[in-house]
User: Fold this.
Amino acid sequence: MKKIFSLGLLLFVASFSYAQAEKVEDAKQLYNSNFRKLQLYTYYYKDINNHYAPFIGKWIYQNGNQTFVIQLWKETKVDYTAEAPRYYTDELRGHYKLVQNYGQPNEQIVYTSEINIGTSPTPWSTVLTSARVIDNYRMSGTIYDVTGQVNPAYPTGVRGQLEMKINSTNPNTAQWKVTLPQGMRGMDQPSTFTIPTNVTLTKTN
Assistant:
């Protein structure tokens, strides 16, 4: 009986220790193909060097009396432990809107990403996700254009590949580019963006 108890205690301690085996690495290692991952650990890819900081805040692009507004923030330790391999990561996230007469008393929202997903009651927590910040000035990620008419077969709208590059000589401006991801697409899959796809943004805060 004592042997069985000791074995059970040993297995409990071992499983507890394994669950605690978390290792913190720089966020850039998540996409580094040369980075050797050990199965012993659950990795946390953390924004150790604050590469995300220059992107965080409100950015705008003005076209006539309409203003495209993108708000970016950092979400820390996003849980991907249900995936294989298990990991956590810091991410940039965001929402956007198009505003008529921005900042004026007669301001009116033309569209916004802060809506429900398709016809579901679940709101978008974010329409932009990026854990890939190459340095202080460049990041890439995924963005969903949810502004057009929703096809029930594709409730997430048009999926785009986002590239954002901050001007190193003027960090209050950045080039914003959105393209369709490479690869095969369904014939009926939406592929026309409503949101701006190649503009210069200005940071306002």
